[in-house]
């Protein structure tokens, strides 16, 4: 991709602002909101995963869930089974815990608004996990997810992970990101739904 092609993807105002800062044209730092500079949130600043990437991956998974046989079962039954949403594992080399927490909040909101299930509150969930894992620092253990679900009275629980595939060459770098999610039936441990959403970021050297 040529530089001109890339720059055309970025609105002129954002380009001008970022260029002036990079060139040191201003003695004082300039802080802006994405809502104030059209397109500022659009171009990636690195090959690392960011908020927009997380939202895209979650949206793809939730769209797949709504179209799944499991969602149809929930809708046909009309009994709003209880669902717990457990933490997602970070299997990348990046520090994305805060982004993952935001993803969990978005997933919770999405499932509540779907009106297909009754979602266990995160506060109650965190309290119960801390009690179960008191001797181990109160941290979530994915191996105990079914136990958490039973103690919460949840018929199903949602879990998942984020991981990457990283390729480097003399010409640049390509990173593929994956968000894998599942809904598991608590009593039987049967996987009732799962999906993997993915996207790619690349850095192409221009030399």
Description:
The chain is 38% helix and 26% strand. The chain is an alpha/beta fold and 207 residues long. It folds into 2 domains: 1-43, no CATH class; 51-204, ABC-type transport auxiliary lipoprotein component (Rossmann fold), CATH 3.40.50. It has a 5-stranded mixed sheet. The chain starts with a helix and ends with a strand. The relative contact order is 0.16. Mean pLDDT is 79; it is low at 1-15.
Can I get a quick summary?
The protein has 207 residues and is α/β, with parallel strands linked by helices. It has helices spanning 3-7, 12-22, 51-66, 69-77, 97-114, 122-132, 145-152; strands spanning 82-90, 118-119, 156-169, 172-185, 191-204. Helix 3 runs parallel beside helix 5.
CATH secondary-structure class of the largest domain: Alpha Beta
Radius of gyration, in Å, reads: 21 Å
Shape: globular
CATH superfamily of the largest domain: ABC-type transport auxiliary lipoprotein component
CATH topology of the largest domain: Rossmann fold
- How many separate domains make up the residues? 2
Question: Roughly what fraction of the amino acids lie in strands?
Answer: 25-35%
Helix amount, in percent? 25-40%
Q: For the largest sheet, list the strands in their spatial order.
A: 2-1-3-4-5
End-to-end distance = 12 Å
Secondary-structure-based class equals alpha/beta
Number of E strands: 5
Question: Could you name the key traits of this structure?
Answer:
single chain, 207 residues, Rossmann fold, five-stranded mixed beta sheet, 26% strand
Question: What are the SSEs and their pairings?
Answer:
Blueprint: H1 3-7, H2 12-22, H3 51-66, H4 69-77, E1 82-90, H5 97-114, E2 118-119, H6 122-132, H7 145-152, E3 156-169, E4 172-185, E5 191-204
Helix pairs in contact: 3-5
């Amino acid at each position: 991709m040529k530089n001109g092609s890339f720059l055309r993807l970025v609105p002129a105002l954002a380009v001008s602002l970022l260029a002036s800062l990079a060139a040191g044209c201003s003695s004082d730092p300039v802080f802006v909101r994405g809502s104030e500079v059209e397109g500022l949130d659009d171009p990636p600043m690195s090959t690392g995963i960011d908020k927009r990437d997380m939202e895209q991956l979650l949206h793809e998974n939730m769209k797949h869930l709504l179209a799944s046989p499991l969602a149809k079962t929930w809708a046909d039954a009309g009994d709003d089974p209880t669902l717990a949403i457990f933490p997602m594992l970070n299997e990348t080399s990046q520090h994305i815990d805060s982004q993952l927490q935001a993803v969990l909040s978005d997933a919770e909101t999405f499932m509540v608004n779907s009106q297909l299930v009754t979602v266990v509150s995160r506060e109650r969930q965190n309290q119960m996990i801390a009690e179960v894992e008191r001797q181990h620092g109160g941290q979530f253990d994915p191996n105990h997810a079914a136990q958490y679900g039973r103690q919460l009275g949840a018929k199903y629980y949602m879990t998942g992970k984020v991981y990457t595939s990283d390729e480097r060459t003399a010409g640049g770098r390509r990173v593929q990101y994956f968000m894998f999610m599942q809904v598991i039936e608590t009593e039987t441990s049967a996987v009732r739904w799962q999906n993997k959403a993915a996207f790619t970021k690349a850095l192409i050297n221009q030399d």
